Amino acid sequence: MLTRRDFIQLAAATAALGAGAGGISRALAQQKLSQDDLLRFEPKGQVTLLHFTDIHAQLLPVHFREPEINLGVGAAKGLPPHLTGTDFLARFGLKHGTAEAFALTHLDFAALAKTYGKIGGLDRMATLVKAIRAARPGRVLLLDGGDTWQGSYTSNLSKGADMVEAMNALGVDAMTAHWEFTYGAERVKHLVGALKFPFLAGNVRDTEWEEDVFKPAQVFERGGLKVAVIGQAFPYTPVANPRYLIPKWSFGIQEERVAKHVADARAGGADLVVLLSHNGFDVDRKLAGRVKGIDVILSGHTHDAVPAAIEVGQTLLIASGSHGKFLSRLDLEVKEKRVAGYRYRLMPLFADAITPDPDMAAVIAKIRTPHEAALKKVLGKTESLLYRRGNFNGTFDDLICQALLAERDAEIALSPGFRWGVSLLPGADITAEDVYTQTAITYPNAYRTEMTGSFLKEVLEDVADNLFNPDPYYQQGGDMVRAGGLGYQIDIGQPIGKRISNMTLLRTGKPIEPEKTYTVSGWASVNEGTQGPPVWDVVMRHIEKKKVVRIEPNRSIKVVGA
Fold it and tell me: What is the mean pLDDT of residues 200-206?
């Protein structure tokens, strides 16, 4: 007979097992997770929208740790998606140690990864998409939010062609874009011509003729309704990325043009208006409050995974995460050209629980097989969890900065605050593919230059304003530039020019002097003609020399005003 004490001890042991450390716990977890569980959904209404975004060319399942810090400012402070960890779990009623908690937060990531395995993979996504389409014939729209063609060795090598082939095979109905434009105008036009579905970007115009470069919108017939999908590419592409790659195209939020596209859709008889956006979540939240008539905004760019639809007036905001980890399903009941009801689920694609689709698996094998030897080359091993994400630093970012300092003989290293790049668990081999996944861009040169202390402060202030300006329309997404060899304090509540202080050269412990010149190495410069070796070569060389990587906690940045 079980005593009360025995029961409590058993319950505690079971809880620890579920939160934890691999072996039996993984087996138990997978018993609880099945493909049917992930697909379980009570249909509602006439139309099903499926949405993914920011895959960053990840064909296979991945580990991807969600951010520990994702600060909101202004009206967005304390609101989703600016909640992490236990605050996130409390907001959405999730329990620590569960599959959803693992997929959506950083909490106990390394331990739970051993329990729940990798997430994503286009062959797994294809399985779910086909199943939903079979269950809802003639009612489903599959929409790609962009940042699809860039972020891997094969996408960089093929200049995006691999992902075009994969998305055609997946049966995407429409897409918008951001990093796609970094292949250059002519290459983008060529790839768009190879798509079997429309490339929508209503805010991209020719600077000479002020004409649309791409189709702004597309009307689809689904469930007996006319569904208008308007594309909104990343508004700050020529600022955040090299202007010289797209010299004759203008971007911008263009609120009035969005409103015009909505009005045109309604005038054309649209029953449902969807904005397929790469603005970033906070920009979309503001836009939803200012442009009337949008029923749904499918948001991308900022990589936020929010397990509930956020209502702004009569507009639903959907955020579907990144790296192929999630597939959003939004079922809509439409009456008299307005949403009368909806049901939503953010589905994590637990790779071990989903049977890979054989057709997509064949496409992936065709793309990757010629490069497997190069991709699987082992450079070293990590003793630390390597990840990217967090407003101020990530351990893989720290590794890149260490490589720049050592291999380019620099005092200070600067690495962009990109939100893409997957995670590696402690004890894992570091392969060439892992490095390419963090660095594979079309302007990879690792420069070495000199900067004054005052210019360094300007750089930090400028990037901080892109992230922490209280007006979302002045935010460009991404995170703070990563700094190696440099410490500083940031007060996110201050205006531009006053956020950064106490800059210190870590090598000496001395303050950065405004007029003094420092040797700086970085990469991903937007300036044409930047010289230096590809950053992936720099990082790979550094890892091969170290053989074993261990990244200590980065305490060189002090954050106040949060």
Answer: 97
